[in-house]
Predict the 3D structure of the following.
Amino acid sequence: MLYAIFISVGFLAACGGFLAAVLVVAEKKILNYGPCNLDINAGERELTVDGGSPLLSALAENSIFIPSACGGRGSCAYCKLKVLEGAGFVGPVEEPHLTTEELETGVRLSCQVKIRNDLKIEIPKELFAVKHFRAKLIEKEMLTYDITGLRIELIEPQTIDFVAGQYIQLESEEYKGREAVMRAYSISSVPSDNRNIELMIRKVPEGICTTWVFDYLQKGKELYFSGPYGEFHLSETDAPIIFIAGGSGMAPIWSIIQKMVEEGIQRNSVYFFGALTQKDLFYADELNKIADSSEWFKFVPALSREPEDSDWQGERGLITDVVKRYFPDTSAYEGYLCGSPGMIDACVSVLTEGGMPEEKIYYDKFA
Amino acid sequence: MKRSPAEEELIQSLGPSKFSAQGFLGHDGRPIDEIISADQRKLDRIGVSINTLVDGLKAVYRQARQAYGAEIQITPGVFTTFYESRGRVPSPFKTNGVFEKGEALVREKESGQHIIITQLGIALIERHHFFQGLGSRYRIDPEVAVRLLGLASFKEDSP
């Protein structure tokens, strides 16, 4: 009886092993797409990759880092690229993330495009500069009760080449059962300080990455990030500037202002910093110092919930109302905005109502 | 009863992920359809429709978002504050797209009762009648929501 059971179990195990072997061989033979050619930007760059892998990871293996926050699961839609030829059909995971126009022009989620043949793709040029960095936290300072400033020293590579206004994707570590994630933060330091980067990070209630930054990331700890990303930067015109940002939205604006000081770019500029109360202000001394020593720069913090009987002598009210008071006519200016979608939308309205053409408004919307 | 592969995939999507530390089910062990039915029964008892509740949630979210982090009163004793956050969060129902991050905390000061409204949370209610499981940080209890938002006066006429 026992012998019969052993024989049956052994036979079933052998069948399972045989089927598994057949599947492995079949995958290697039938699903082996062989080497595939990636033509990037009409011959600007060409790669030969092994077929079968997602486009996102094939590019990363060749040191081309496309933004992604979901680890290639088709959830975040950060990894969009134009695939002009060879992509295959659009699957149900991709479709909800693509507009009709995007579908018509060949935009795809690169994590969902499996390389089965040669592809022709378009990659924004700035992504070629993106690298993966190993670095170390050397300073951590509370700027306000809910915003921390980090200073990070680069280890490998040792330097970073970025444009003031760009951002990086910081990689958190696993903790308390929470997965490692990647989150975008604007660089707040000046590009000439290329052996370090600085970030301003606001605590999000129950946020996976910000909880790691605030509660677990300590000075001396090594960390990883990729970058730089983003198209938000100072234009090369001479037009006067209206900057609007509050909270951690200051980061790219502060990088741009420091660059202007360093390079002697003296375009007339006003920076409107919106906050609720005095305890939400930071870097006011540094910004006031620039304003006091420059004729071209003015710093205007505006508080919307400061108690009426406080000692605050600066502007009061919503930032949009303050901007309107200072600039009823915005037609000659360029606007640089950074913050939440709600704040951006309201500021764009105010600036366009004042006559600023919408194409002269540049923003890094937190979305 | 054994779950289908589609149900298993949905349960996994509703669990903790790279975008949601706690997921959408909290500590609720009930099947999803039971969670949905129980919350629908609550709404039926109160006499407020899903559409009315969704409209109310959207209105409060919009008001809070436009206040840029300032606390505003929405009904007597009930206040809301908006917390912004960079990035987007995908729906656990894969075909529903991605949503703006950011949340409106709605709180009754005296009792401390609160709900947290997000764009994704509203979409889950509107499209799937899913209010999220017990223990989920973003669960919107129908009875609490109706009371805090002052929607009890919008009782639907019975057919």
Notes: Residues 2-29 of chain A form the longest helix (28 residues). Chain A has eight helices and 17 strands. The longest strand of chain A covers residues 131-142. The CA atoms of residues 235 and 334 of chain A lie 9 Å apart.
